[in-house]
């Protein structure tokens, strides 16, 4: 085996590695569910939903409440002020999600007996295009 063979093998290995990274980076380990599949067993788990933003409201403290609907039901998505600021700094205007379809990734939580989704990063909510 000469230097040329070793270079060829190394090049193929690098190429396979890069392709593997690209493929796995597009795969999410977070399961996508319908809203009616979210139950008590989902509390604390990270999930992904897609739905239509019916309503957006904002509290005095800067927390946003999005009412998101899919074909199976409704769920509140709560964006705390600290995350809302990070989103704003990243050029994401939460009010612009109104009456649009979005993808949301976050943890299921319960507040006053009601289930809700809490996104955890500025990239957790995206408009469906």
Question: For this structure, what is the CATH homologous superfamily of the largest domain?
Answer: Nucleic acid-binding proteins
What is the overall pLDDT average?
91
Sum up the overall morphology in one term.
Answer: elongated
CATH topology descriptor of the largest domain: OB fold (Dihydrolipoamide Acetyltransferase, E2P)
- Radius of gyration, in angstroms, nearest whole number: 20 Å
Uncertain segments are none
Could you give a short account of the major beta sheet? 6 strands, antiparallel
CATH-level-2 architecture of the largest domain: Beta Barrel
Number of strands: 6
Taking the alpha carbons of the first and last residues, their distance comes to 51 Å
Which structural class is indicated by helix and strand composition? alpha+beta
Give the C-level CATH assignment of the largest domain: Mainly Beta
Task: Please characterize this protein's 3D structure.
This is Nucleic acid binding OB-fold tRNA/helicase-type. Pfam families: tRNA_anti-codon. One of its GO terms (molecular function) is nucleic acid binding. With 129 residues, the chain is of the alpha+beta class. The radius of gyration is 20 Å and the shape is elongated. The protein has helices at residues 3-25, 81-89, and strands at residues 46-58, 64-70, 73-79, 101-111, 114-119, 125-127. The protein folds into 2 domains: 1-30; 35-127, OB fold (Dihydrolipoamide Acetyltransferase, E2P), CATH 2.40.50.140. The longest helix is centred in the first third of the chain and has 23 residues, at 3-25. Strands 1, 2, 3, 4, 5 and 6 form a 6-stranded antiparallel beta sheet that branches.
């Amino acid at each position: 085996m000469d230097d040329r063979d070793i270079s060829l093998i190394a090049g193929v290995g690098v190429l396979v590695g890069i392709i593997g990274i690209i493929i796995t980076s597009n795969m999410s380990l977070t399961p996508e569910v319908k809203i009616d599949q979210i139950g008590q067993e989902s509390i604390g788990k990270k999930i992904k939903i897609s739905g239509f933003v019916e309503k957006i409201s904002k509290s005095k403290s800067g927390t946003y409440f999005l009412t998101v609907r899919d074909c199976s039901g409704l769920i509140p998505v709560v964006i705390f002020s600290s995350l809302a600021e990070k989103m704003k700094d990243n050029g994401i205007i939460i009010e612009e999600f109104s009456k649009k379809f979005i993808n949301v990734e976050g943890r299921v939580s319960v507040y006053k007996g009601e289930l809700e989704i809490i996104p955890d990063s500025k990239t957790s909510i995206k408009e469906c295009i």
